[in-house]
Design a protein that fits this description.
Layout lengths: L1 E5 L6 E3 L2 H4 L14 E5 L4 E9 L1 H4 L1 E9 L3
Parallel strand pairs: 2-5
Antiparallel strand pairs: 1-3, 4-5
């Protein structure tokens, strides 16, 4: 499965390292404003997404993890 995220925040977004550790494949570079990023998830999973705002100095960070679809 793939999940596409569109950055409409007007700010740069870093990707949390645990995104790759959960088995998701993606470009781990900063997501620029107005940029789309595709996250490729393992089969039979769905995305769970969390975003943090660390303020102007550290910016935004996103975590995408693969959750098992047990149905």
């Amino acid at each position: 499965m793939k999940f596409v995220y569109y950055n409409d925040t007007g700010r740069e977004i870093s990707i949390h390292p645990a995104t790759e550790l959960s088995g998701i494949k993606c470009d781990m570079t900063i997501i620029q404003p107005l940029e789309e990023r595709t996250f490729y998830l393992p089969l039979n999973t769905f995305p769970w997404v969390k975003m943090w705002d660390y303020g102007e100095k550290r910016g935004l960070s996103i975590l995408v993890t693969a959750q098992k679809d047990d149905k």
